[in-house]
Fold these 2 entries.
Entry 1:
Amino acid sequence: MTTVAAYAAPAPKAPLERTTIERRPVGDHDVLIDIKFAGICHSDIHQARDGWSEGIFPMVPGHEIAGVVTEVGPEVTKFSVGDRVGVGCMVDSCRECDNCKAGLEPYCTGGGPVLTYNDKDKEGEPTYGGYSEQIVVGEDFVVRIPDGLGLDVAAPLLCAGITTYSPLRHWGVGPGKKVAVVGLGGLGHVGVKLAHAMGAEVTVLSQSLRKKDDGLRLGADHYYATSDPETFEKLAGTFDVILNTVSAPLDFAAYMSLLRLDGAMVNVGLPEEPVQVTLQSIFGNRRNLTTSNIGGIPETQEMLDFCAEHGVGAEIELIGAGEINDAYERVTASDVRYRFVIDAATI
C-alpha cells in the first residue's frame, strides 16, 4: 500500500480537508497515475453533501482525472510509463455481461460499474477519487489523452465531455440537425462546443441572456432566454435534440413542445428532487423524453480523439486545493465559467 495526500469530506456536508489515503499496490494489470489535474463536477457536490443518497465517508471526490503514468503492472499492454492518461467516472465493472462486452460499461448489469469514488471495489474496499496525488486503476478503465489536448482542459472531458458527447452521438447529431442545449454551465458549455464541432445548428436555452456572448463564442448559433414566454412560442417544433444539462426540475411540457417529429429531449442533469412529467406533453409529434449516462470506455476514447481533432477543451478556472470549499460554494451559485480544475501539485 502507498500513502498519498488527498482532500476528503470527513462527513456529509462537512468542508473538505487535507488528509492521507492508502492506494493499493500496482497489480499485474494496473496503472499507477500521478494526477496532474482534477476537475470539480457538480456531482462531487451532490455526493459530498448526501444530495442523491447516503454516501461513504470519508469521501475523496473527483472523477475528472488527468495525469501521467508512472508505473505499470507486468501484464499491462496498453500503456507505458510517461503516457498522458485520464480516468473518468468508473474504474471497474463486471466485464462479463452483454453491455460490458459491448463497451457499454456504465450500463453494466452484473452489479453495475465500480465508481471512481463513493463506491466499493470488488474486494469491498472504498474507492477514492481524483482529489489526490495518485491513483491506481486497471488498464481497461484508463484512456489515453491525445497530445493535442492540454491535461488541464482535458480533465473535465472525462465526465462533462463524455456525458454530453454520448447522447449527441447516440441521437445522430450532425449536419442538418438542430440542437438545443439547456443551461450553459459545466456540462452545457462542453455540449455546445461538441454539437457545433459535429456540424449541428446549435441553440442555447438559458434562464437569461447574461451569458449570451459566451454562448455565441463557444459555438452557439442562437441564444434565447427561457424566462421570456415568447421563446417557447417562437421555437415550438424546432429541434431534433434538446440536451438538458441542468440539475433542477423543469417544466417538461414547455420544453417538449420545442421538439419536432421524433425529436428527443435527453436529460443528463440529475436533480436531487423528484420531477413530474405529464404524458400528454409527450404524445404530440411522437416525442422522446429520455436520459443518458456517461459513455463506455471505447466511446470515451473516441470523444477525446474527437476533441483533440476539433480543438475542443473545457473552459476552466485553475485553482489550488485549498480553494476547493470556496469552489463548491461558487458552483452552487453558478459562479464559474465554466469548470473548476484543481492543480494536483497543490494537494
Entry 2:
Amino acid sequence: MRRTRRSSPRLRIAPVLGLLAALLLPLCITFAPGATAAPAAADPVRVMPLGDSITGSPGCWRAVLWNRLLNSGYTDIDFVGTLPPQGCGQAHDGDNEGHGGELVTNVADQNLLPGRLAATRPDIVVMHFGTNDVWSSIAPDRILAAYTKLVTQMRASNPDMRILVAQLIPMNPASCAACAQRVVDFNARIPDWARATSTERSSITVVDQWTGFSTATDTYDGVHPNASGDDKIAARWYPALTSLLDGDAPSDPGDPGDPGGGRPSCSASFRAPSVWQGGYQGEVTVTNTSASSVTGWTVTVVAADGARLTQIWGGTLTTAADGTATVTNASWNGTLAPGANATFGFIASTPATAGTPSATVSCTARAASS
C-alpha cells in the first residue's frame, strides 16, 4: 500500500511525456500508438477524530490508533482536523477536531462544525462527544438532537460519510457524584438513535467504549484517560475503523449513483456474573447495531490482569500467545436481526493478585454472501 501523504501536488505526467517526445523524435524514437499515462493514484481516506478534550487534549489514543493502523498495513489514511497534535511521545498524524471543554450541544447550536468540515473534507468521522454535556446535566434528548444535527451537517459535506459514534467512556469525577449514572443512562440511548439515523448510504456504527473501561485504573482524574485508557480506547476504535477501511474507498460525494454503506455492525458488552479466588465466569452480549441483518460475528476479548479464557459456551474460541481471545459465533446464534443480540459465556483463570474482573471486548459482524 502507498505511504500516507499529506496534500502534495499530483505528478503531472502528460507534460513530462510531451517533453520526452520532443527530445526523442530527433533520435527516431517514438511512443507506441495508444500508449497512455498511468492513472493518478487515489487520495488517502481522510479520518476526522471529533470530540472534546478526551479526543484532543492531548487525546493520545489517536497516536496509539494511528500507529496500530500503520503497523497493520493501513498506510493509505490521513487523520484530519483543524487542530494540531499536542505531543503524546510518539510520532503520529496528530490532526484532530477535539476541542477541550466543548459541548456537543454548543457545537450544534452555534453551527461550528460546517466550517471545520469544509476545511478538512473527511470521509470518516470518529466521534466521542458529549462528556461535557453529560457533566452539565443536559438531557439525553437534547444531546441526541445535537448528534442528529451534526450528522446532517456531515452528510451535507459528504453524502457518503461513514460515522463511528462512541458510547462514552465512564466518568466519575470527585466533583460530580451523579455523572457515573448519567453516562450509563445516556449510553443506553445511543444504539436506538443510531439505528434510526443510519442510512444505507451514510452508515452510523456504534462503538462501545464504556464496557471494560475503569475510571479507577484507566483515567488519571475520573474523566480523562491515562496510558492504559488510551490503549483501551484505541483497541475499541480499531476493528470498527478497519471494517470501514476494508470495505470500499469512500465514493465521490458528487456521484449519487454510488452504492451506499449499509454494512452490518455489532457491539459487544462484558460482565462477570460470578467471581471466585483464581477465576471468574464471564459473559459477553453481542448486539446487531446496524440496519441490516448479521449472519455471523467475531468478538475479540482482551481480559485484564493476566486472565485467560479456559472454557467457552455459545461460540468457538481461539487464543493467541499473548492471551487475546477470539470468539466466533456458534451455528445457532450467528444470525441477528437489527437490534437483536446473542450471548456467549466463558470461564477465565486469573492470577492470585488479579482485581475486579474486566475485559476489553470488540465486535466485527458479517453479512450474508450475495
